[in-house]
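Long-time lurker. I teach an intro course on protein structure, and each term I like to show students one example going from raw sequence to a predicted 3D structure in token notation. This year I'd like something fresh instead of my usual example. Would anyone be willing to generate the tokens for the chain below so I can use it in lecture? Attribution to the forum is fine with me.
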Amino acid sequence: MNAFSLNHLSDMDFEEFCFELLGNLDFKNIQWRKGTGLETSPSDRGRDIECQIERIDVDGNHYLETWFVECKHYIKGVPPTHIQSALAWATAEKPDTLLIIASNFLSNPTKDYLKILERENKPRFKLKVWERPDIERLTLGKSRLLRKYNVVGDFPFLSILHPAHLLYIKGLQFNSMDYFFEVTNSLDPDRRDQIFSWVYEPIIQPRYRRPITHSERIKDLRIDPVSYEIFKNKCYEMVEKGAIDQLLLIFLIVNWVLHGQLGISDVTSVDEVVDRMRGAQQFFQRQTEEQTQNTADLERLIEFIEERILNAQNNTSQNYELYTYFCDAVVSKLLVENIFRSDQAVDN
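-- Reply from a regular --
Happy to contribute to a lecture. Here you go:
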């Protein structure tokens, strides 16, 4: 996988990238102080971008902070002399924050200089620095921005695939059912239930009753119990009855879990997921406006989608953690089992 890099951008492209990144991070009133379309322009007067961000006080009062942003596109470390104009202008204008965004890193002398400045001069503005690792973290999930500036390819999710997942799908992996359950028996029970929820339903096939109230969840409607032990017993039962070969069953289970869990764990494209949910929310909102009665269900659905939107980044990150846990704790161990050892006869 290619490492995160902005080196291919021109100076102007990097400033434009930072401008759009700030918009993605909910900054407001963003002004790119570029007086011309040329690569160099004398009009920025010590800062490339000026913007504001909304803050909420402890008493609920909303207010705006003003930020000056200086963009530094260097492959080598940014030297101290190249941030002087931004520091001078911030000292004169006194924004709330001066942010220096470096496409790679500040040089060590520059970092030392800023530490001394903060300690001895105590500027009246906050001083923040975003370096390449910070930019990579802040752009996580913003696939459109990254694709626009060719920071990632057409399939950014490839960068988050676990090595064990890649090795598992590289060829046909055969595992015995006894070994599979020996590995999964040792998993954290709560995490195990979350991970295997993808296969509990199709393997156990529990019965359901009709809902009585709108507040009932799917698990409230189940007539038959669903658990890891029932799932395990059902797998053995299917194999003993000859319904499916154990090697194929385990292969299908692992692939089902990997595909399902990765599908809800794509931290590289959270923005696209949110856009789809926004579209659904707007559709249901129009439905409520067209109906004058019986809109309660639609309103509950709109609220549910809004909650999902607000928690999209956090939920996706948690799902990705489960995906990596499954790969580390299960898939990597399945890769070491070799059913067809050299001393065994194998029919070709």
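Some talking points for your students: The longest helix spans residues 312-334. Residues 11-153 form a domain with the Trna Endonuclease; Chain: A, domain 1 fold (CATH 3.40.1350.10).
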